[in-house]
Amino acid sequence: MSAAPQLWVERESDVLVAGLSGELDLGNRDFVEEALREAFPSDASAIVIDLTEVSFLDSSAVEMLFALHHDVSTSRRRMGVVVTRDALIRRSIQIYDSSQVLDLYPTRQEALSALTRGASAKLT
Questions:
Q1: Which of 28, 36, 56, 83 is the most exposed place for a label (fewest CB within 10 A)?
Q2: How many Å apart are CA 111 and CA 104, to the nearest integer?
């Protein structure tokens, strides 16, 4: 079983920013998903999940991102995921997200800017 990754949460206006570090996999997926769901305030218009400090994620972690995205979308909010262009985990996300469901951003600032103005700038 993997050690629990570190999670931090902060607000930027009406956007919740949750950052993770470490490894995300089947061994800690439930813990991470529960912690993220508990952190989502009902009054946040958007949620940014910052993965810039994540060194590894497996398919279960990507599935978790899909599940969170679905729940956020059904509550009429938006979600963005921050992953740098050169991050090793970027390829894992792209493989599982071939239909580009997740909005990926190369920086936290780009995610915040796009989500607060309602635009989508998916990372290619």
A1: 56
A2: 8
Q: What are phi and psi of 15, to 5 degrees?
A: -110, 130
Spell out the per-residue pLDDT of the chain, length 124, in tens.
555 689 999 999 889 999 999 999 999 999 999 999 998 887 899 999 999 999 999 999 999 999 999 999 998 999 999 999 999 999 889 888 877 899 999 999 999 999 988 645 454 4
Distance, CA of 28 to CA of 31 (rounded, Å): 5
Q: Is residue 77 part of a domain?
A: yes
Domain, as residue range, for 32:
6-117
Task: Write out the two tokens for 87.
Answer: 């991050």
Q: In what order do the strands lie in the sheet with 46-57?
A: 6-12, 15-24, 46-57, 78-82, 103-105
Total domains in the chain come to 1
The answer to whether position 124 is within a domain reads: no
Specify the pTM: 0.88
